[in-house]
């Protein structure tokens, strides 16, 4: 399975595309004079996009973005706790949101976490995840959590979205994803009411 990775060094940032345990390609960005991590994010995005384009890989084909950071990180929440005097603005950056907004990565994993928490807290609740990620089937799901994939969309440089399949289907995909009455599995136990929930990963 493919993934993007970043190695945040003190003098350079290594950007790579990997598959399983094999390094497919990598580039280095000089960061010796960088004062903030925010100033480096556009360069990092361009470097990662270049790697994807060179190998004809779509962001949706990657499982995620792995980041090695020179500091103390809460691996459960992804929060940077200490910067060790490098990229001191990193504690105030939401890298998970940046990954999602830039490459569309991380949203499925977050949706799974939310769904698993919901079914753990509420007996009888069923959750249906709707996603355009082609790798949705590669993840494990708890009981009462299921998923449906719809045609993928990608974010363009101008901030607009377009369909990965037939362009004319884009409006239809968005319309269906926003419908309030999305299909979901319901279970009723005795006199208790049915419970269901739908999470759209967009």
Describe the structure.
This protein is of the alpha/beta class. The model is unreliable at 181-194 (pLDDT under 50). The chain has two domains: 2-103, 2-Layer Sandwich (Nucleotidyltransferase, domain 5); 107-201, no CATH class. The two termini are 21 Å apart. The longest helix has 15 residues, at 107-121. The strands form four sheets. The protein has a four-stranded mixed sheet, with helices on one face. Strands 8-7-11 form a three-stranded parallel sheet, with helices on one face. It is globular and about 55 Å long. The protein has helices at residues 41-54, 95-103, 107-121, 170-177, and strands spanning 2-8, 12-19, 22-30, 62-68, 72-74, 79-82, 125-131, 145-149, 153-155, 161-163, 195-201.
Overall helicity: 10-25%
Helix/strand/pairing class, anyone? alpha/beta
From the 3D coordinates, which CATH architecture of the largest domain would you assign? 2-Layer Sandwich
The beta-strand count equals 11
Largest sheet: 4 strands, mixed
Which fold name fills CATH's third level, the topology of the largest domain?
Answer: Nucleotidyltransferase, domain 5
Poorly predicted parts: 181-194
Q: What is the N-to-C order of secondary-structure elements (H for helix, E for strand)?
A: EEEHEEEHHEEEEHE
Global geometry: globular
Strand content: 25-35%
Mean pLDDT: 77
Write down the Rg.
Answer: 19 Å
Could you give the order of strands across the largest sheet?
Answer: 3-2-1-4
> How many domains make up the 3D coordinates?
2
The count of helical stretches stands at: 4
């Amino acid at each position: 399975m493919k993934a993007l990775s970043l190695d945040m060094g003190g003098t350079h940032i290594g950007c790579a595309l990997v598959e399983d345990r094999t390094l497919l390609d990598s580039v280095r960005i000089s960061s010796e004079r960088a004062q903030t991590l925010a100033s480096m994010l556009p360069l990092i995005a361009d470097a990662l996009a270049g790697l994807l384009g060179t190998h004809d890989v779509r962001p949706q084909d990657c499982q995620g973005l792995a980041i090695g950071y020179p500091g103390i990180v809460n691996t459960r929440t992804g929060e940077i706790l200490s910067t060790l005097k490098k990229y001191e603005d990193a504690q105030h950056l939401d890298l998970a949101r940046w990954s999602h907004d830039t490459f569309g990565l991380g949203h499925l994993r977050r949706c799974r976490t939310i769904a698993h928490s919901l079914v753990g807290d509420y007996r009888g609740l069923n959750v249906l995840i709707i996603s355009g990620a082609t790798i949705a089937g590669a993840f494990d799901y708890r009981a009462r959590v299921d998923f449906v994939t719809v045609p993928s969309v990608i974010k363009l440089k101008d901030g607009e979205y377009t369909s990965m399949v037939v362009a004319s289907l884009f409006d239809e995909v968005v319309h269906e994803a926003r419908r309030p009455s999305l299909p979901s599995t319901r279970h009723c136990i005795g006199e208790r009411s049915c419970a269901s929930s739908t999470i759209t990963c967009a």
